[in-house]
């Protein structure tokens, strides 16, 4: 379910007018996605994606849209927000902050090969370096402080064995010092469903920058590794692609096992939060928190060194 707000043709046509993209020909809701309402929109000027942000703070939205425009300028295949003559990247539609972005080609893949992972690694490193030039970037909203706060709120809601695991992991993570790890703007959610591919392993687009913010670059690589690389061969390809653009420091190599755990913890908590503490009015499509609990347990039992 991803269309929470229904947009009528006349109100959409009026909203589109300042963008000067020609007459509205068609608009249709997009079924994928969980957080926002998305539509494919076709005008005389081309095909676009309209997003109505259901619960995004407008100041954060300014940053997310500036980031995508900046990365698109740098040659990364990111959606480019349409801008009106006054320089606005979003305006209200049906009472929700809304933006029109370029529609990127391709489909996501569920079972990526080593070449997909290599390309994602290369692209992630390019994204990190390109985003470094962006001014006034906020911190990752779901960084270490968020993990501790949400983790502690969830503890009383979990069965005893899960609460014990979570309490122990929170204590372990609280003892980590990430201050020596190189930092910058990270995507923070570059899962397989947020990357589009055209035939074989040709990159079509990167989507969904709505968790982005400043954090350790290594954390972003761990988020990607946890979703894309269930085996060593694909992890080696991902890391090889990444380090071909930005070599890792000795501190990053040493921190990898703990940061991989932090990345697994982040998405275990996100999914637990959606299940146990849904926001009012949220239509919850809960993905299985167990996927990330099991990954975390695996890393705690057998820390994996970084290949290469
Ligand atoms: N710029 C774009 N070009 C092509 N397709 C897009 C674009 N933006 C979104 N989509 C399509 O819409 C779907 C939903 O988008 P998105 O993942 O951003 O949803 P969401 O509800 O905002 O976020 P989430 O996946 O985190 O719940 C994507 O899976 C993709 O199919
Ligand atoms: N990628 C997240 C959803 C947030 O977009 C997950 O799989 O839990």
Number of strands: 9
Span between N and C termini?
41 Å
Q: Name the poorly predicted regions.
A: none
* Average pLDDT level: 94
- Largest sheet: spatial strand order: 1-2-3-5-4
CATH architecture of the largest domain: Alpha-Beta Complex
Domains, number: 2
The secondary-structure class comes to alpha+beta
The portion of residues forming beta strands comes to 15-25%
CATH level-1 class of the largest domain: Alpha Beta
Question: In sequence order, what are the helices and strands, one letter per element?
Answer: HEEEHEEHHHEEEEHHHH
Provide the CATH topology of the largest domain. Answer: Aminoglycoside 3'-phosphotransferase, Chain: A, domain 2
Radius of gyration: 20 Å
> How does the major sheet shape up?
5 strands, antiparallel
Helix content: 40-55%
Fourth-tier CATH superfamily name of the largest domain: Aminoglycoside phosphotransferase (APH), C-terminal lobe
Number of helices: 9
